[in-house]
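Possible race condition, two jobs.
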Amino acid sequence: MYMTTTYLEKPFTLSADAINFYQTYRYIKLKDVLDADTLAYYGEAIEQTVAGLNRQHQPLDQRDTYGKAFLQVFNLWQQDDRCREFVLSKRLGQIAAELMQTSGVRLYHDQALFKEAGGGITPWHADQYYWPLATDKTITAWIPLQPVPPDMGPLEFSAGSHAIVEGRELSISDDSEVRMQQRLRVTDFRHVIEPYELGEVSFHSGWVFHRAGANQTDQVRKVMTVIYMDKDMVLKEPENENQRKDWEKWCAGAQVGQVIDTPLNPVIYG
């Protein structure tokens, strides 16, 4: 087993200030979460798995806004042993649990998001619109496999926007971009756009609004994400068709009103 596996088991020291920041704004960007060797080793596995599973071969200029935003490949942890080690990392799971202030976390699913050279914007949205989960104890780790300068399309946040209910009914689309841009403009929420250094990882809750700019470089923006939920998360009755599809795909076998304890949703930490 590669030496970086032990690195993924090492605890990460989170300060009280960091936890308080996350609890207030529902996002945080943390430096030195992963080292260069770990990212190189697991990044290679993620890239190879994405290349093998990607089914999007339509030219960029023939796709809609969602299709231009990124290439998506899901649940890499089921496809490759190295990807499994990465996604089920206790180091990342510990950070997720401590930020949310839960006793542990389960996997909801993982998702590679590769924004191609020339790829378009990712419109404003809140992830939990898609999730049939009973509480807001959800968090996504956004893990770049390389530095992300401003012109590559780093993740942008509306800090504290989990507090608003308007827009929670919107899927990722041109409509969500326009409507939420207008709505957020008249709030006091700070719009945060920052580059990512190598090893820097951000975490955001399911209801905080976020977007990403276009990739104006000639390189692919390679990002891996892991979506965690409270280990005691209960499945709710789906409120839209996307939530029903997510239940069937990511929580198969779970029952409404019960903890989502299925082989697809292992406890990662706690």
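Job #2 (started ~2 s after job #1):
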Amino acid sequence: MHLRRAAVAAFGALTLVLAIPTSASAAVGEFQYTYVGLDGNAKAGFLLDPPSGECITLPEVADPSASSPAHSPRNRTTSTATVFTEPDCEGDYFTLRPLTGRGSERLKLRSVVFS
């Protein structure tokens, strides 16, 4: 009887462990950048806990013919951020280290990927 109860308890525990959804891999923290808004003023853009391994084209600067690129990125996430000069993670790139990585106003970007 005790063996059966132990087996049922172990099976139940295993089922619970397998049923708990695993969180998608994400860069924990905030990625900041500056872009020029439609009114011509500097605006702050943010990505909060962005997914890892997926290219993210910054929506405010996605169209190269309609907007200037973003600049001054600040990587306050737990992952390395690689920023690209073009949408869809194309063009020249620069890597920003986790938590303290930053770029000046001269570092232009339109997309980013976290790893």
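The domain at 29-114 is CATH 2.60.20.10 (Gamma-B Crystallin; domain 1).
Logs attached separately.
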